[in-house]
Amino acid sequence: VHERIMDNQQDKAIIGRLAATLVKDNDVIFLDAGSTVPFLIPHLASMEGITIITHSLTVMVAAQKYPNLQVIGLGGYFNHTTSTFIGDQSILEDLKVDTAFLAGNGVSPTGIGCSCFNEYRIKKHMRTVSANAVFLGDHSKFDKPVAFNYAQLSDLSCIVTDRMPSNEYASTLKSLGVRLLCPENAPIQLPPPEELSNPFSLA
Description:
Layout: H1 2-5, H2 9-20, E1 28-31, E2 51-54, H3 57-63, E3 70-73, E4 77-79, E5 84-86, E6 97-102, E7 106-108, E8 111-114, H4 117-129, E9 130-136, E10 148-151, E11 158-160, H5 167-176, E12 179-181
Parallel strand pairs: 1-2, 1-6, 2-3, 6-9, 9-11, 11-12
Antiparallel strand pairs: 4-5, 7-8, 8-10
């Protein structure tokens, strides 16, 4: 994961800033494993009463320097490949979150997917217990079908990406009532990408 964080950093920073517009004070949010999701965290620091639930060590490390963020870690054995903790799935049964910010390896007309079965189970469950399921992924994720689909496009409330996808995807998402959030329709004025926060900067 840490190696992938170094890829397309400006695109991920844009996605993180846009995704933060979907969070409000006192929200309980799930932050998935993935190299894009941590770029949301610096933009939560000025908010009040934010609770983060995560199984991602990468998210925990990024959030630890913001003491106003309450972080609840889901335990289990550590998967070095995904930098996540995988444990007893029953602990997930009682979780309720306002928004789940989800990652994945690919987006296709058949849905959103990942390549790891254990991750698939967590992503699918957190999608079902969240009031809003939001996928964060840069343009390279589109038209990449993968092994385990944890959501149909219609299961999502929003997709946040770094540029407008093809007309086919934009039209499909609109017809399904799924919001598409990207720089071209951003509700805020985005600063230059190089000025956006990196969750792992030392500043």
